[in-house]
Design goal:
Layout (H helix, E strand, L loop, with lengths): L1 E5 L6 H12 L3 E3 H11 L2 H12 L5 H12 L8 E4 L5 H14 L5 E6 L2 H10 L2 E2 L28 E2 L7 H11 L6 H15 L3 E6 L4 H13 L7
Parallel strand pairs: 1-3, 1-4, 2-3, 4-7
Antiparallel strand pairs: 5-6
Helix pairs in contact: 1-9, 2-3, 5-8, 6-7
The structure holds adenosine monophosphate (AMP).
C-alpha cells in the first residue's frame, strides 16, 4: 500500500505515521528526518539543506525531489511506503505523480489530518522531544500530555526542543507553506484529490486533528480498515 500523509507541523502526523508503519509493515519515509540525519552526519546533502531548514524554508526541489524518488526505489519500498513531509508543494506533487505514473505505480491512499493553523502553532510551541524516544508525547500546552516537570512523562528522559521549533518566525514560515492553497502543501493535497476524482484512486482519508492522539488513531484505523488493503 502506497500512502501520502499530510498534516501541518503540530498535527501529530509523526505519531500516527509510526502507527501506520507498524500496522502495514511499510517504511515511513519522512523527508524532515532524512534531512536532519544528514545534517548530524555532516553529509553533503545535510550541508546543502541546513540553512533552509533553520529558516523554516523548503529545501529546493532540485535537491528534495531526486532524494525522495531515489529513496522510493530502495528494496524496502517494494511492498509499499508511507510518504510523510513530501510532497510539500504543488510542483513536488506533480513531479511525484508523473514519476510514479512512469513506473506504473499508484498512490493508494491520501491521509490528511485537518487542523486549524492557530491550534497547530500552539501545539508546536509547547512540544518537547524525549532524547530516548522521539515518539513519547510531551507538550507544555496540553494537560493530557504535559511533561513530568522538565522530564519525559513516559520514561523520565531528558526533554529537548526541536531545533527548528525554537523560532516563531520559522514556525510561521513552515505554516505559510503548509496552508498555501495556491502552490504550497494544501495545493499538493488538492492535486491528489483531483487525481482521485478522475481515477478513483487514491482513496481519501480525512482525520480530525483536534482530537487527542488515541482518538485520531482510532479514526485512522477505522477508516483505513474499510479499504481492502492487505495487512502483512
Ligand atoms: P519536518 O520535519 O517535516 O517539519 O521538516 C523539517 C524541514 O525539512 C522543513 O521545514 C524543510 O526545511 C525541510 N523539508 C522537509 N520536507 C521537505 C520537502 N518535501 N521539501 C522541501 N523541504 C523539506
Amino acid at each position: 500500500m502506497n500512502i501520502v500523509f499530510f498534516g501541518p507541523n503540530g498535527s501529530g502526523k509523526g505519531t500516527q505515521g509510526t502507527i501506520i508503519k507498524e500496522r502495514y509493515k511499510i517504511p515511513h519515509i519522512e523527508t524532515g528526518i532524512i534531512f536532519r540525519e544528514n545534517i548530524s552526519k555532516g553529509t553533503e546533502l545535510g550541508n546543502k539543506a541546513r540553512a533552509y531548514i533553520q529558516r523554516g524554508e523548503l529545501v529546493p526541489d532540485e535537491i528534495t525531489i531526486p532524494m525522495v524518488h531515489n529513496r522510493l526505489k530502495e528494496a524496502d519500498c517494494s511492498n509499499g511506503w508511507l510518504l510523510d513531509g513530501f510532497p510539500r508543494n504543488l510542483n513536488q506533487a506533480v513531479r511525484l505523480n508523473g514519476a510514479l505514473g512512469r513506473e506504473g505505480v499508484d498512490v493508494d491512499v491520501l491521509i490528511q489530518i485537518i487542523l486549524k493553523r492557530e491550534t497547530a502553532k500552539k501545539r508546536i510551541m509547547g512540544r518537547r522531544i524525549c532524547v530516548n524516544d522521539s515518539n513519547h508525547p510531551n507538550n507544555m500546552n496540553f494537560a493530557a500530555i504535559k511533561p513530568d516537570g522538565d522530564r519525559c512523562r513516559i520514561c523520565g528522559g531528558e526533554l529537548k526542543k526541536r531545533h527548528d521549533d525554537q523560532s516563531q518566525a520559522a514556525i510561521d514560515q513552515r505554516h505559510d507553506i503548509y496552508y498555501d492553497t495556491e502552490n504550497g502543501t494544501l495545493a499538493a493535497v488538492q492535486y491528489f484529490k483531483d487525481v482521485s476524482d478522475r481515477k478513483g484512486i487514491p482513496a481519501i482519508v480525512e482525520l480530525d486533528g483536534r482530537n487527542n492522539v488515541e482518538e485520531v488513531t482510532r479514526e485512522l484505523i477505522e477508516k483505513l480498515g474499510k479499504f481492502k488493503f492487505q495487512v502483512s
